[in-house]
């Protein structure tokens, strides 16, 4: 943080460099002149704008029209600014934040400077029709300290407004809940980037619940002004304005956290929050070094389609998104990693991709992309979740083989996994594989948005025109997909669930059954407590023939996969004491209560089974309070919790710098393996 920063005084600029920059500024009139000014400062001044003329240069880079600024007289501006300081315009919160702004700098202890902060912040909120957000004060500080315009309130206000509109436009939404929705969306996209470039670091932080909302809020809201010294903030903002790309903030943030990865991976768990909260760059040289890494990640390592989606969802939140953008966002919400498009992976693109076709063999035989290699995943695709949870089986061997094949590509190629484009099928192969690859520390793993289905659609539209197919038979492919989808549907999978699961579990001891089911539930994050096996389970797992041939007592239901799993997961360790016979006249009421309770338990059991049989399904989360959402959904889904409100105790504070709600779930954490070649840092 910047609370201990000593008094800042800008270093004088070389006279010759200053003279040449002033000449370039005076010659700037048109958009073409602004482009030449940018190029001149980058090449001749090494990306550092002389502080003596920084305000004037920023006015050109932010396209501030001085004639429009001076159309309002200084007296008019001062009067309106004073009138905007009102109780119904966040006066109390603004006054509190003003007193906390840069407390180590003598400048901001002066009453006239604090008055200027109060009036400018109040006027901005009033004119933009927005609620005050903590962080607005930090964003205003650099403009007040400009040598050439800092004493002119009208120019300061114009620069401040233009900067926020260009680089944090989502704060200008008049609906406060939408502001925080976009902020949460920004955290999810930032998390995607970190997972893409350094999955080991991402999963390590996630294992300790150190999600971006905990440590990156001030980064994204204040563009690092709250975390950096004045000198470092100016250096970063100069580069940001010269680049004129607001997404650079996110890639700079990724570069900053990657620069501290060794310290993060080796630190004690108790020190992790402090390290994350205090990450900073203190010198101009360090800022430029991190900017170079972040710029390399953005320009040369990130799929262009993902950048376009980020720009649309984060930088143009006030515009109504078109159908294509919404479909892309929804598709990303259901994926494990970053998604790419066909244009990204085609030869001649900016990135080198190695493409895997992960579809079932019967579908691949009906046509594939020429440059895609086929990755066999039959064991993974055909196995039931219960069997997948048991380590050391054929599924694990297949996944380990896939991991090793992709590990050889790490650091030299980006990896794209192509699925069928049918959610029922992709949830059986592409998504589990992508999750496994990232958990093994393999960077730059993505899935193709829309899968092969989108490839065929793009071919029909003639875009792109350089796609080569092998043995394409569209009719046979569609028939194969329909057969496979029907085979993989929930109803088909449950049809023989009793036979498969009872037979499988009957061969296991109670301890093994408990371990298998706990593995399933832990990996799916469905419940936060261990499974308790009742003491009377010795005869629970009978053979299939015994189950079928048993004659149930009158009024008793035959065992099924529902009450079988219910006994395993929700039965108490100690059997309840037998209830006394109810008094005469209470039989009907007791019977009704018993029936209601049994129906409730059966409903919960069915919900749990649906989750066990359907990886990535969230249907039961809507009905059962015991089911927790997958952490990736909570982090990445731009549409998650759009209509669900938390309880008052759990609702996020309007202050984006406040601590997030306490996490109640605990995990067993293992230190991650060393990352294999982090892109951009090798």
List the helices and strands and how they pair.
Elements: H1 15-26, H2 31-44, H3 54-61, H4 66-70, H5 74-83, H6 91-100, H7 111-128, H8 136-144, H9 153-167, H10 176-197, H11 199-207, H12 212-215, H13 217-222, H14 230-243, H15 248-259, H16 261-266, H17 272-277, H18 284-301, H19 304-315, H20 323-333, E1 338-340, H21 342-345, E2 353-357, H22 361-364, E3 368-369, E4 373-374, H23 378-382, H24 385-388, H25 394-407, E5 414-418, H26 423-426, H27 430-439, E6 445-448, H28 451-460, E7 469-470, H29 474-488, H30 490-495, H31 497-506, H32 510-524, H33 544-549, H34 561-570, H35 587-613, H36 631-636
Parallel strand pairs: 1-6, 2-4, 2-5, 5-6
Antiparallel strand pairs: 3-7
Helix pairs in contact: 1-2, 5-7, 6-7, 8-9, 10-11, 14-18, 15-18, 34-35
Descriptive account of the structure:
Helices cover 54% and strands 3% of the residues. With 682 residues, the chain is mainly α. The strands form 2 sheets. Strands 1-6-5-2-4 form a 5-stranded parallel beta sheet. Strands 3-7 form a two-stranded antiparallel sheet. Helix 1 (15-26) packs antiparallel against helix 2, helix 5 (74-83) packs across helix 7 and helix 15 packs across helix 18 (284-301). It is elongated and about 80 Å long. The two termini are 29 Å apart.
Instruction: Determine Rg (CA atoms, Å).
Output: 30 Å
Helix- and strand-based class? mainly alpha
Question: Could you give the order of strands across the largest sheet?
Answer: 1-6-5-2-4
Shape summary: elongated
Q: How many DSSP E strands?
A: 7
Chain-averaged pLDDT: 77
| Helix proportion range | 40-55%
Poorly predicted runs:
523-594, 604-682
* Largest sheet features: 5 strands, parallel
Distance between the termini: 29 Å
